[in-house]
Amino acid sequence: MIRFLACLAFVVAGTAAAASVTVTVVDDAGRTVTLAAPARRIVSLAPNITDTLFAAGAGAYVVGTSRFTEYPPEARKVPVVGDATTLDLERIVGLKPDIIVIWKSGTPAAQVDKLKQLGIPVFYAETVRLADIAPAVRRFGTLAGTSAAADQAARTFDAALDHLRGAYAGKRRLKVFYQVWDRPLMTIGHAQITDDALSLCGGDNVFADLAQAAPTVTREAVLARNPDAILGGGDGGSLDGWRHIAFLAAARHGNVLAVDAPTLALPSPSILPGVQTLCHVLDDARTRAGP
């Protein structure tokens, strides 16, 4: 009996020690964030962050999320605490989070200051290229103590990307205008992850020289760059105006196309089906454009 109690005490002590292991991760602002134990109550303030946390195996620990969160579907059941510009601070405090994960470039400084005043650890996340996604999954896995699941998800994601890169590396490249909205006319710049997806699929964004994520451009500027293909998402406004311009290469080859890929602008693991769809659309456009 004494030996049993001694063993039990050893197990309990070991469990307590494991639970109290500190966690240290460097965030995307270069800050070292240390927690006394893996996070078990996490508030996410961007849809892509929530998706990445779920991919990292930490979905059960997400207690608050932001408006417009759609992926993965089970994340829609998590209580909403606001969005990038308006937060319900009282509700956030009531959720008693161990950490708040913030979109680095999308959360206004005034909101961040208010969050810091709550005394809750803050972690900045910023994913702008496809190569940033797997490391983000691993960092979140470390924060939540789910590293094994996170590493598996990260390796699976990178393997899928590598497969696509290999499949499209030798394809003839097309000049592409990607329409985000038509009034005003908006497109993607280099800072938008869709620009990276286009490049992987063998497309060259004709406005990659613009630093903004979603710059406004003129119709004349698009015509001057004469893209081989004009693409737009389901909510990108009407593409019809481009189809009747005879001298435009994209119109001449029937390459003014809608892309049914709702996750294509989401910088998180759920972007992958969108990238695959984009690659197929560009492959079809490449065939129509001819040699």
From TrEMBL:
Protein's UniProt keywords contain Nucleus: no
Source organism, top-level taxon: Bacteria
Keyword terms, alphabetized: Signal
Residue span(s) of domain Fe/B12 periplasmic-binding: 41-286
Matching SUPFAM superfamilies: Helical backbone' metal receptor (SSF53807)
Entries under InterPro entries matching the protein: ABC_Transporter_SBP (IPR050902), ABC_transptr_periplasmic_BD (IPR002491), Vit_B12_bind_prot (IPR054828)
NCBIfam families: TroA_like
Protein's name according to its UniProt entry: Cobalamin-binding protein
Lineage: Bacteria, Pseudomonadati, Pseudomonadota, Gammaproteobacteria, Lysobacterales
